Amino acid sequence: MTPVLVASDLDRTLIYSSAALALTMPDARAPRLLCVEVHESRPLSYMTETAAQLLTDLGDTALFMPTTTRTRKQYLRINLPGPAPKYAICANGGHLLVDGVSDADWHRRVTERLAGECAPLAEVREHLLRTADPVWVRKHRVAEDLFAYLVVERELLPEDWVKELGAWAENLGWTVSLQGRKIYAVPKPLTKSAAVREVARRTGTDLVLGAGDSLLDADLLLAVDRGWRPGHGELADTGWTAPGISALPERGVLAGERIVREFLKVSRAPR
């Protein structure tokens, strides 16, 4: 039988920063947490210990593929439990890692498509530098020479600015997504779904599962056979749904645990 392919977003879907844990229960009932990412000698991202065990078990019944907007460097500092993934998608589909190494042919195909289908990164970056107010911008970043993002102070960020940026970017073939303290500007042709379809083709799988929480995950969820979104994030805030997508009530790190549980349950079911 061909393997089940599980393509899952990471941040705020499977792994959570301390600010995103949403531990609303009494302290004595809070779940035990496992740190899965350290950055600059400090713990950064977590999942519950139960989710960690479920993810380890998932490796026995499915091909788990992290599918993230993170750069390769940011992804490689994550230490997930279970078998090392054969495939991983980074930079929102710009890099397809095979045994930890970027597939050069895939990356070339992506960059050729971007050159032909949307405005160049330099134009978008110039607009961000010119219009974003230093009062609330903490960092300007370019990721893998593919897209740009800002790190901002959310409490100071004017709500209308993000909407205006989104409308401006739409006309250039770009998408804007606000996730936590980051505002992403990503070319529309740069998608997780295209890379997922490529891995599904290579592995011959007949069942693809997926999960994600943000606007950048919508195309991923539309490409899978069954998907889940947590009760938080851009998709939940807008009430986004689609056929085959389950909207979970859980928020924060417990949503991550529920998502892995659903992956495992479906991957173990007779097909």
Automatic annotation (TrEMBL):
Keyword Hydrolase belongs to the record: yes
Keywords for the protein's UniProt record, in alphabetical order: Hydrolase
SUPFAM superfamilies: HAD-like
InterPro entries named in the record: HAD-like_sf, HAD_sf, TPP-like
GO MF term list: hydrolase activity
Name of the protein this chain belongs to: HAD family hydrolase
